[in-house]
Structures
1.
Amino acid sequence: MRVAMVGAGYVGLVSGACFSDFGHRVVCVDTAPEKITALKDGRIPIYEPGLGALVAENVRQERLAFTTNLAEAVEGADAVFIAVGTPSRRGDGFADLTYVYQAARDIARAVTGPTVVVTKSTVPVGTGDEVERIVREERPEMAISVASNPEFLREGAAISDFKHPDRIVIGADEPQAAAVVSELYRPLYLNQAPILVTSRRTAELTKYAANAFLATKITFINEIADLCEQVGADVQEVARGIGLDNRIGRKFLHAGPGYGGSCFPKDTLALVKTAQDAGSPVRLVETVVAVNESRKRAMARKVVAACGGSVRGKRIAVLGLTFKPNTDDMREAPSLSIIAGLQDAGATVVAYDPEGMEQARLLLSEVAYAQDAYGCAEGAEALVLVTEWDAFRALDLARLRSVMASPVLVDLRNVYPPKDAERHGFTYTSIGR
């Protein structure tokens, strides 16, 4: 089948590359010429394990191409995906749908025959209705159907998630549209990936509901971690104890400094605003949003407490800047709030991240950057582990201790067993244990 992917960002590029790897002919289109030039030159603008090789192979096989010309991309396409950004709107927190609606107009004007327009971007309930109104208004004579196909990709594991999904959700109010999108995923038949066909509005809400539930699990275990610290329990053992219950499950029960990234913060906020507008507020999700925001800043206070109540004039080393490992994504990363809190308290911050420092430089000021973890720790009066990259899981604690000015280790991801850290002379602080 012929596919056009409007938007060559994270979702569009991963989805386009994976569809082409299934054997479909895919053209990714983007309005940013520098991005398309980079992709044509074989340079991937985001960090995602395995994506570079996947793109290169399918470009070589002539199944994947890139352009800034929308008309060229959509010509003869069976399906045109909208995969543009939906950031939180300034001022009110609603999802900004400007790019989605503009893409719908441009697609409608450019299509040359019957096609299905598929919203891949994460959008509030009812967005598909407006997209359909726009395309009908622009091209009333053209047979254009509108469907929803939300993505459920984890950064750092996106290719695996696309090719081995828990489920594929297709929202369509016309059987023909559902059939076209289902056919795109037919190569996953051998993987027995369940395809759930729903109404368009149901699909849109399913995405928000899924992210809100996962964010709630993270926030829940973080609050249990705080309680563990007060009563002398171990949050990791509590998490195992409840996670073995199949009704609860073990995933997303890892205590830490709060969730971040491109999805959970904006999607939970958008769901809150949508529910308020509908007169059916989601109080639980409202609380999740509030607790998560306050938790990030609280982690800076935790570091200050571990340093004896003051970090003024002290050199604090931060390991890990991205919101999670295996990505260069700094959006809403806990490190941003933590570093700001430490700087406000008078600390000098030096940081290291395997992939995120280039993006961090655009968002942080007056932060020094090291070449590796040991260089970061050199001369520091405290070492704060914020992101649990694999490279940080087996650091030489004796070497770290030898280069630090003071043996304070604040482990915000519970990577190290307390006894190991203490055996190497660290004053060790963790989360919920």
2.
Amino acid sequence: MPIALILFTLGGCSFAPKHVRPAAPVPPRFPGTNPGGATIAAIGWQAFFRDPELQRLIALALANNRDIRVAAARVLEARGAWRIQGAALYPQIDGAVAATRGRTLYNLPGSVATPVDVRSIGVQANAAWEIDFWGRLRNLRDAARWQYLATEEARRGVVTQLIAQVANGYLLEREYQERADLARRTISTREESLRIVRRRYEVGSGSKLDMTQAQALLGQARAALQALEQDQEVNRNALALLVGQPVTLTASDRRFAQITTYLQLPPGLPSDLLTNRPDIVAAERQLLAANANIGAARAAFFPNITLTAGGGIASTSLGDLFSSPTGVWSFAPSLTLPIFNAGRLRANLDVAEARKILAVAEYERAIQIAFRDVADALARRRQLSLQIETTRGVLDALTERARLATLRFDNGRSAYLEVLDAQRDLFDTQQLLVQLRRAEVASGVALYAALGGGFAAQPVFDSDAVATGRTPAP
């Protein structure tokens, strides 16, 4: 059989275990859902988030966020490590120029030693190649490749979380804006009420207690507005950190009650998580890397064959190097067989196998965490919908109560304390309803992120550009 065919046959050998995807340790469907159905993970973020200003913020964050640049730099690092491991499969060729000059004693038997000057100069090319009979180098290369791909998925996970964080920050901004507008309207109403109560006190038809209660009611609304403005400023600073630059948002008349974009969100099946959720895909690629490392550890028990060769020209002077050179060459194949290493190779294999067990456990845990995230988001959506309906009924009742309390006070049939309690409860419930509506929309964002959405039909990021910040990410 020709030598090339023998090398090719042996070169296909690998001791890496065959990859079998572990069974998903979760139920076949999400709680409270019907089997089957499409998944929102197949929707790109530009189509899912339809608000133009939110789209602008997300695009800015993808271009400027430093966490993404860190993740992209790690992708470049892992890709370089993969290339380094792949280079070991090929012959390594080096060129060398060497010159020596010295003096030694030349001594023939029966004569006096004579000093002799020694000069030499040479140009040589050296080559070394480890023949990968048992697949050790290929498995190391494959392990580095899977690590690189896992790092790329980790970058995707960072981007998914960033999109969700920007969206939640934007929703909080809109919540604070809506609640602050509500507080300002309430302040305006209570200022008018205080004016009327003070006037009644001044003309003797009202009490000072009523006036101080009206002042307290107004002060509570003003304090609530100040707290909202503080929270809004803190949230805007958080958005600026995510986006990578100061954020300026335009005022919007749109209220959460009018938002219907995120109300119908089919979660799909748990199996969709295996292909869409970045942390699960990364965990499976870590498992593939662990398999490759086992193959490399097993191959280390077998002989290592290395071919080393060199060739060039040499002369005693630089002037004669190319005019009348002397050819020199060497060829030195070597075979190294491990005989005794105090159990180091066995321990390396044990470590590789233990790391595979760890990778399997982390893969299964990633699936369980993803399932819980989706189940939590679905549960929040169901409960928030019920809470909103209940709070709307409470708000209607409190609105009527406040109207009647005011009417009774105006007719002198009750104290202003009754109006105070009714107005305070009404304001708190109005604020709560806005919070619940924002939370319902945010639960849709959480479900979208938990399913790993945002990358369907999206172009692959240019990690070099993102890591250095040269161009915006898509």
